[in-house]
Amino acid sequence: MLKIFLGLFLTIVHLFANSSESSESFPDLTMTWVGISSLFIFVIGYYFIAAEDKYHVDKAKPALFIGTFMFMLIGLYYVLNDLDINILSNDMNHLILEIAGIFFFLYVAMTYIETLISMGVFDRLKYNLISKGYTYRKLFWITGFLAFFISPVADNLTTALILSTVLITIDRNKKEFLVPGAINIVVAANAGGAWSPFGDITTLMVWTAGKGDFTDFFYLFPSAFLGFLVTAILLSSFVPNSKPQFDASKEKKPELMTGATVVIALGILTIILAVISHQVFHFPAMWGMLFGLALLKLYTIRIIKKYNSPLNIFHAIAKIENNTLLFFFGILAAVGALYFIGWLHLAVVVYEPDMLGASWANIAVGFLSAFVDNVPVMSAVLKANPQMGLDQWMLVTLTAGIGGSLISFGSAAGVGVMGKMAGIYTFASHMKYAWTVFLGYVVSVAIWYFQYEMLGIKHY
């Protein structure tokens, strides 16, 4: 399937390369040796990322290599051709700022999660769920619904990280529960983030670009929810209906470390601060996250002195999945290089009426975002600014948000869960059930069509 989509992508690139013009000040390098070689490096690197299980090479290694190497080649091309290197430098500074925002957002979110783990919060949550006698299937549904309704507020990545931690603490070995459960959480978190202006980075980009009012995104709720529900129903049939091995008489109720409830409250406050810093102050969202981390560090000083608590934030930081952070850095840098070269601008040609047209192009964006990452794809669409009405801007918001669920590493939520459940939730394990996600995607698009085209909803 990967080969088919890559082949389709390369075919489109070949057909429309000569008809595309860059909208940026930097030159179009697509048909130069650096453009062709960079695309080749990107495809090969993605192959090794996708084949992580086959070659036993951590996905961060090829991602980091292609992300840094592609820009080194671009720099070499500029020097050899006596081009203005300041253009490249300025573009890289913008890219680094974007990557840093995601990088430090992840860093703080993972620190909070590891801190809560060390304080026994997830062990208590696990105990509370299993002690009620819930089956694996019921736990599957509970975590899925929690992911869908928490992600619009807490963002899809943080939600997926938290609930995947719950899954792995329930049972570390039962893959027939863990893999469908992980996919369910990723699909639910991405779907939940698609109908909230700050539930996903792409929805935030569309909102701040003025393509829709705050309330316009709420009209995507039926599409997002029903698509998730279809996938969840299909996945649930593969989850065993047995109960986790648990004897309440033998299991001691886990004790929460002193200050755990305050740390939970600080985590919620940190998310709120991230939203405020971005929406009100127009700072990067990571600024509010880092301020929340500062509050956490200050609070640990108090409980260590007052209660002689064993809590150590640096121990929590040491447990962070650094390969996940490096993967994000590498893959976002690689996609940034493709954008700088000019490859991502070529996709805009398909919006022309004599090509695919807006509806089919926006549906295709969902598939492209699964392979390339929805953030740069949405950025390319917004910068190209095709002439579309509100209905089409809502469609591309929906497809870019839920399309990342089609592949395990197609979204921030998926990558986060891959890092949290390493060796369990992988590209290969996801693809076994990818058809269920695809059917959910089709249902979401069909519901959008029913709302906007058949019912003629116009909420301008």
Automatic annotation (TrEMBL):
One of its GO terms (biological process) is sodium ion transport. Residues 50-401 form the Citrate transporter-like domain. The chain crosses the membrane at residues 32-50, 62-80, 95-118, 139-170, 217-235, 256-277, 283-304, 325-348, 360-381, 393-413, 433-450. Belongs to the NhaD Na(+)/H(+) (TC 2.A.62) antiporter family. InterPro entries: Cit_transptr-like_dom (IPR004680), NhaD-like (IPR045016). It is found in: Membrane. It comes from the Bacteria. It holds the Pfam family CitMHS. This is Sodium:proton antiporter, NhaD family. One of its GO terms (molecular function) is antiporter activity. The keyword 4Fe-4S does not apply. GO terms for cellular component: membrane. It is a multi-pass membrane protein. Keywords: Antiport, Ion transport, Membrane, Sodium, Sodium transport, Transmembrane, Transmembrane helix, Transport.
